């Protein structure tokens, strides 16, 4: 619902594709997931702080809940290192 058709390949998938299809190589890998956790928490807060404005644009409670779930689900994934 959030990003229809979106693709978020794993690091293993990206490196495999690089090795089989290019001469690209990885010089450095850094896990910045905790920063994305913090970003998602701030996005959620801003989104909910502006909920009335969003609903005034014609969006409904389902839209609000969908995005709130997305922010929470992804933030939890990055905080627990399930994502990132």
UniProtKB/TrEMBL annotation:
Short name of one Pfam family: CMAS
GO molecular function terms listed in the Swiss-Prot or TrEMBL record: methyltransferase activity
Superkingdom of source: Eukaryota
SUPFAM superfamilies tied to this protein: S-adenosyl-L-methionine-dependent methyltransferases
Protein name according to UniProt: Cyclopropane-fatty-acyl-phospholipid synthase
Record organism: Noccaea caerulescens (Alpine penny-cress)
